[in-house]
């Protein structure tokens, strides 16, 4: 067992209602989602597309169920749009999350991203940033990090399939060219394994800058199909490339071992987007909850 003193367990609503493909889980309401999160034994959530936009309304609903918001996705367009546009949207998201008591803002660069395109092969046609785009991205992220710090919050960068920061080399460059006191890393097991990276090596290398963790598993046979048949990210999700920890190919023992030994504090978020018609969200949330409890005692 790998003990953790100051870690809380959350689950992402994307298992119930998919932000990129709203038809997946269209039948689930916000209330269905948070009721089942609490029933499965979680104490936190990230923000989904059906969540109330008023912090007081959202907080009241979550408080009733013993849940709190730990983070929310933020799409930056630092490589393709004026910095001011991203800054304006970021401040709005920052203030929303701050009002809910969250300490992390998960930023993912969406300039040139293909993650939301249904027919573009995710492996073969991922974007590659130019030198100028890298400069705009890293300087822009430093600025977002400064804005987050104004509210005692942290920017955690979310490496993601189908974007310009997906591979080990790209994560290395992002970490090297951003201020370690302003920009941190969101570590996502599923995206690293799907991309073919050594997820444990990256965890060890950047453990001092990892301030948010997504626990996601991968079905190896589906991943191989995505690569062989040149499927898109969304097609892969529909076919079930992702699942909850303990249900796929990833060995989580070394992940928990490193995080425990290095004294990681914060949130573990179970995030496994699947078609809820094929993978009942409550059942899979419970499955992940049991697996994590067995491994960590949480």
UniProtKB/TrEMBL annotation:
Official protein name in the record: Inosose dehydratase
InterPro entries with a match to the protein in the record: IolE (IPR023952), IolE/MocC (IPR030823), IolE/XylAMocC-like (IPR050312), Xyl_isomerase-like_sf (IPR036237), Xyl_isomerase-like_TIM-brl (IPR013022)
Pathway listed: Polyol metabolism; myo-inositol degradation into acetyl-CoA; acetyl-CoA from myo-inositol: step 2/7
Name of the coding gene: iolE
Domain Xylose isomerase-like TIM barrel per the UniProt entry, residue ranges: 37-294
Protein family according to the UniProt entry: Belongs to the IolE/MocC family.
Cofactor: glutathione; Co(2+); Mn(2+)
Record organism: Anoxynatronum buryatiense
PANTHER family in the record: HYDROXYPYRUVATE ISOMERASE, INOSOSE DEHYDRATASE
């Amino acid at each position: 067992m790998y003990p953790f003193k100051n870690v809380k367990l959350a689950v992402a609503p994307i298992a119930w209602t998919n932000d990129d493909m709203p038809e997946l889980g269209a039948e689930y309401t916000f209330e269905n989602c948070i009721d089942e999160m609490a029933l499965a034994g979680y104490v936190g959530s990230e923000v989904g597309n059906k969540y109330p936009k008023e912090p007081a309304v959202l907080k009241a609903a979550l408080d009733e169920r013993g849940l709190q918001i730990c983070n929310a996705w933020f799409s930056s367009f630092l490589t393709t749009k004026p910095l001011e546009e991203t800054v304006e949207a970021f401040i709005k998201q920052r203030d929303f999350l701050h009002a809910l008591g969250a300490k992390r803002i998960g930023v993912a660069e969406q300039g040139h991203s293909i993650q939301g395109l249904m027919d573009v092969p995710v492996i073969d046609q991922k974007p590659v940033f130019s030198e100028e785009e890298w400069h705009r991205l890293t300087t822009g992220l430093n600025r977002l990090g400064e804005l987050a710090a104004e509210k005692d919050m942290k920017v955690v960068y979310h490496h993601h399939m189908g974007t310009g920061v997906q591979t080990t080399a790209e994560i290395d460059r992002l970490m090297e060219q951003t201020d370690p006191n302003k920009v941190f890393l969101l570590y996502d097991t599923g995206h690293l394994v799907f991309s073919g990276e050594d997820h444990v090596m990256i965890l060890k290398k950047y453990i001092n800058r990892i301030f948010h963790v997504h626990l996601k598993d991968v079905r190896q046979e589906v991943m191989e199909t995505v690569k062989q048949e040149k499927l898109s990210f969304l097609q892969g999700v529909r076919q079930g490339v992702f699942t909850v920890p303990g249900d796929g190919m990833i060995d989580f023992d070394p992940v928990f071992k490193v995080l425990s030994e290095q004294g990681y504090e914060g949130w573990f978020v179970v995030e496994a987007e699947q078609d809820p018609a094929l993978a009942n969200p409550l059942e899979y949330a419970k499955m992940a909850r049991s697996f994590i409890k067995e491994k960590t005692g949480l």
